[in-house]
Amino acid sequence: MVAPAGGTEARFATNPIAFGFPTxxxxxxxxxxxxxxMLGELHLKKRLGELxxxxxxxxxxxxxxxxxxxxxxxxxxxxxxxxxxxxxxxVVQLLGVLAGAxxxxxxxxxxxxxxxxxxxxxxxxxxxxxxxATRFATSMxxxxxxxxxxxxxxxxxxxxxxxxxxxxxxxxxxxxxIYAYLEHxxxxxx
Length: 190
Fold this sequence. Notes:
The chain is mainly alpha-helical. Helices cover 38% and strands 7% of the residues.
């Protein structure tokens, strides 16, 4: 689904990669896909009839496209981060192979899932690590921002804040067209 940097044909999966680190409060979580646009966003934009931002996809002939349907129909998404992102996508793909996946999975089949867990207690010690991770996160947030109206934040903080807001309000905002689509399928359930 994703073309390597400099290419227009899909060779990578979206290859998500995630890390989580304990702190004394909210964990530090970093979770990305190595594609320039996420597969779910392509499907959503297709369903809503919206165009992609320029530079995110190719059609089946290798031409740049903003049409999500063209990207999904034999085209490819661009890789995130140019050559560096392409290298990261390669590493994640090969970690999937290490876990038993096909090297070139077709249409999200034979994908691998590589999981590595490290216990801070057996390395630096849990208390030491969580204290230092918390200290580092505090230092990151205290970085002088480019724009004072947009303070530096840790990865996942915006998502965690949004989740807390949704839980406290008990509501989730869904586009009307998506809601109608979901209702259509719900009504067909036995």
